[in-house]
Amino acid sequence: MLKLGILISGEGSNLQAIINACESDRIPGKVVVVISNNPDAHGLERAKKHNIPVFAIDHRSYSDRNTYELEIVKVLQQHEVELVCLAGYMRIVGEVLLQRYRGKMINIHPSLLPSFPGLHAQRQALEHGVLITGCTVHYVDEGCDTGPIIIQSAVPIMEKDDENTLAERILAQEHAIYPEAIRLIAEDKLKIEGRIVKLK
Ligand code: GAR
Q1: Atom of ligand 1 nearest to the CA of 107
Q2: What is the DSSP letter of 61?
Q3: Which ranges carry the Formyl transferase N-terminal domain (predicted)?
Q4: How far is C-alpha 54 from the chain's CA centre?
Q5: Number of C-alpha atoms within 13 angstroms, CB side, residue 34?
Q6: Mind listing the pLDDT tens digit for each residue in 102-130?
């Protein structure tokens, strides 16, 4: 059982998809801890319903990113986390977290990277006028949404779409590909060569 630590900031629907996949044995893994930088994140309530330990570590209570991330690393280590999954975690990952979990930390982003990294990816896609967007699960590196890509799923943009309708259709795909990416890692099926992720 791969021990998963999930970092969130808000709703936690991806967290829920991961919990469900673990509980129904679609992933040989277990969510052992959930950490949110936002104490009001709904995802914390979702985790509690499944008896998963939760920690609200508010970045605003720390003088700098390193001290904040040291606290996160401490909690992840206490729970012997083997894979860190960012699931709607809206903070930039700094060197402390990255140094400890490089190659063992993944993220989901609501666009077909490398298009539209950063905030408001769905809005960026609409404003750019692309016809197809989607979502990406990737390893975390020092850039913003730049790490090696594990899985992507495409979502066509409809003429009537606004940011909300598009985000909703992308989320449905996120809930499918994020557990699948975790399954591949938990089953030790992936290797990273440079910036390319390959099936072993
Ligand atoms: C998801 O769409 C996720 O891809 C996005 O935030 C949403 C969180 O939803 N993440 C980012 O934009 C990270 N840059 P959730 O809290 O319901 O999982």
Answers
A1: 13
A2: G
A3: 3-182
A4: 16
A5: 33
A6: 999 999 999 999 999 999 999 999 999 99
Residue nearest to atom 5 of ligand 1 (CA): 88
Q: What is the pTM of this model?
A: 0.98
Tell whether residue 91 is among the known ligand binding residues: yes
- Cα separation, 191 vs 53, whole angstroms: 30
Calculate how far, in angstroms, residue 71's C-alpha sits from the geometric centre of ligand 1: 23
Question: What is the domain partition of the chain in residue ranges?
Answer: 2-199
Q: Which atom of ligand 1 lies nearest, measured to the CA of 13?
A: 17
The protein residue whose alpha carbon is closest to atom 10 in ligand 1 is 88
- 109 counts as catalytic: yes
Residue reference for tokens 């910036």: 195
Q: Which of 22, 19, 5, 27 is nearest to 78 (CA)?
A: 5
Q: Quote the pLDDT of residue 73.
A: 98
User: Residue 4 and residue 82: Cα distance in Å, rounded?
Assistant: 6
Tokens matching residue 142: 């020092």
Superfamily designation of domain 2-199: Formyl transferase, N-terminal domain (3.40.50.170)
